[in-house]
């Protein structure tokens, strides 16, 4: 196998991506499709799922609130039936959560952030890992953390707490699942271009009393390369981790962020 072949995921991989009707998840799903994988996506928004399937008719898809354990169980079972097994799980689903001083954060918003960003990772893992053990000889798990999983993030404490927790989950699972030949890694995106990041910037600008443009400039000054990353940058790393070239990479928290120096 030459180097170009090693850099591509094996054709026919069975892949499940959560939170994948838009943004990073959609880019990951599309990249795997282009690599001749069989891809199942889920998302909480039925209309977004319908648009994704219209754009990519080869996609398998289901609707689920990832914070709901029963709905995740249903999606996993549907994915197993449609794909015939599972090689790659991409635990991508997550929300930005509230922005504000810790004493001002609504407890319900805190709970929702923990449920969506962290509990969902476990809900998928508890059902997906047994299927990978049973049906795959090249199993891989990629969990989406964040640069907020390696740096402190004032005014975004619930989000940062979940993203740090995901790194700990990944490093622990890599040890646990290594003997079963299942690799587990986390990707830590930085400031990602798109509507979601615009909303985050706007919320933080409002909470600190500055303009959107001033807050955006502040974000860029914290990045060594002085530019945001794209959803395709994250998708590229996900494919690499699922490829033969990544076969000995496990237990890692890999930043794709242009080197964010601080938050």
TrEMBL record:
Highest taxon of source: Bacteria
GO molecular function, one term: oxidoreductase activity, acting on the CH-OH group of donors, NAD or NADP as acceptor
PROSITE patterns: ADH_SHORT
InterPro entries (alphabetical): NAD(P)-bd_dom_sf, Sc_DH/Rdtase_CS, SDR_fam
One Pfam family hit: adh_short_C2
CDD domains: SDR_c (cd05233)
Record-linked NCBIfam families: PRK12826.1-2
Similarity comment: Belongs to the short-chain dehydrogenases/reductases (SDR) family.
Name recorded for this polypeptide: NAD(P)-dependent dehydrogenase (Short-subunit alcohol dehydrogenase family)
Organism expressing this protein natively: Paraburkholderia rhizosphaerae
Lineage: Bacteria, Pseudomonadati, Pseudomonadota, Betaproteobacteria, Burkholderiales
């Amino acid at each position: 196998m030459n180097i170009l072949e090693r850099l591509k995921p094996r054709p026919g991989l069975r892949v499940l991506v959560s939170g994948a009707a838009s943004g990073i998840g959609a880019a990951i799903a599309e990249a795997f499709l282009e690599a001749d994988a069989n891809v199942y996506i889920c998302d909480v928004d039925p209309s977004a799922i319908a648009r994704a399937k219209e754009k990519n008719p080869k996609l398998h898809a289901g609707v689920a609130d990832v914070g709901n354990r029963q709905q995740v169980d249903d999606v996993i079972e549907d994915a197993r039936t449609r794909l015939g097994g599972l090689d790659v799980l991409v635990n991508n689903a997550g929300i930005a959560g509230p922005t504000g001083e810790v004493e001002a954060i609504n407890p319900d918003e805190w709970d929702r952030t923990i449920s969506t960003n962290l509990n969902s990772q476990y809900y998928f893992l508890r059902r997906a890992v047994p299927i990978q053990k049973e049906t795959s000889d090249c199993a891989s798990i990629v969990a989406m953390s964040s640069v907020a999983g390696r740096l402190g993030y004032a005014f975004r404490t619930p989000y940062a707490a979940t993203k740090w927790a995901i790194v700990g989950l990944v490093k622990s699972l890599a040890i646990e699942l290594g003997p079963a030949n299942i690799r587990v890694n986390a990707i830590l995106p930085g400031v990602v271009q798109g509507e979601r990041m615009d909303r985050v910037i706007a919320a933080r600008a409002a909470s600190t009393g500055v303009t959107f443009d001033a807050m955006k400039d502040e974000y860029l000054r914290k990045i060594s390369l002085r530019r945001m990353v794209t959803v395709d940058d994250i998708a590229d790393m996900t494919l690499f981790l699922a490829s033969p070239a990544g076969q000995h990479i496990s237990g890692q928290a890999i930043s794709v962020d242009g080197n964010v120096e601080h938050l």
